[in-house]
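To: structure subgroup
Subject: Chain for Friday's discussion

All,

I'm putting the inputs and outputs inline so they're searchable in the archive.
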Amino acid sequence: MAKEIDVVIQPADISVVHRIGKRNAKPRPVLCKFVSRAQKEEIMRKKRLLKDNAKYGKLFICEDLTKLRVDMLNYIKDNKLAKYTYTSTGRIVCVVDGANGRNNQKQDAKVFIDSPDDLFDLGVNKLDYDKLNIGHLK
């Protein structure tokens, strides 16, 4: 798979690889930990080259995020709070349209989301703690 996106990986580049989740009929996700963060970032930068690759079908590569970050990412996507959203080095990055009044710029801007409070930077007036699964923090 790495060859398809022009990334050279040696066995020494990988610390550990294992499947996660319960065994059942469908393939389980694979968690891969690299020795070097640079190696991981190179794969993350080029992962979109695998999109719509007939050889790999429904394969996708994503970061292993904490439960809170996954919930925040889904909250942003479900509520269409950004033009598009992705993760980089464990952080949520939102690109917002400068013309929609969410920021004071005329061009697109990146907003980094590290905690639920950062969602206010996307124009959220009131957080839905239950949707973020942090209702206990109210």
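Points worth raising on Friday:
The first helix runs from residue 37 to 46.
DSSP finds two helices and five strands in the chain.

D.
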